[in-house]
User: What shape does this take?
Amino acid sequence: MIIGIDFDNTIADYTGVFYRVALQLGWISADIGQSKTEVKDYFIQQNREPKWTELQGIVYGKEIGQAVPYDGALKCLQSLKEQGHTLYLVSHKTRYPIIGSKVDFHLAAKNWLATNNFIGQINAPFEEDTLFFNETLDTKVNKIKELKCDVFIDDLEKVLTHSDFPTSCQALLFQPNLSNDQSNHITHWHEVNAQLC
Ligand SMILES: [Mg+2]
Assistant: This one.
């Protein structure tokens, strides 16, 4: 099978990172809540959306090293590769931030993947030429189609329900914080194998 996988919030876990970085910068008070949504809502409510955009640039660039792989992600992907599946990483990620210092997000993500053994090792699940970073959501969905993915794993419904998402592709929604038991919804990487059909 050809299996496509998203990167941010599917392989890379940013839980607490937005909060910690914003707090270190003195942009938020400590009591606003630690999730990405709570941090985002704080900036939006205060009419400081550009600051939120800038924060995302810092987290996905300079501070990406604070993200950690989701539990079981590397092991699951290594096992899928060993089983003979073809794996592609297909991410929606602009190359440079809209606001703030010019960091190459694609390079930062590749460095993170290397540091965390997703590329550059004999048993790594990906290689340089199986990584696809797309500037827009539309180009990402078209890449999923072009690569003829049989399965795609993503944390965002808007990817999996996009009008151009191929009907032949099985959509697997990865949302660790939701505990409902919908089919095609996984909360942990160890559930992936059982979902593949
Ligand atoms: Mg994502």
Remarks:
- The chain has a mean pLDDT of 94.
- Residues 6, 8-10, 154-156 surround magnesium ion (CB under 6 Å).
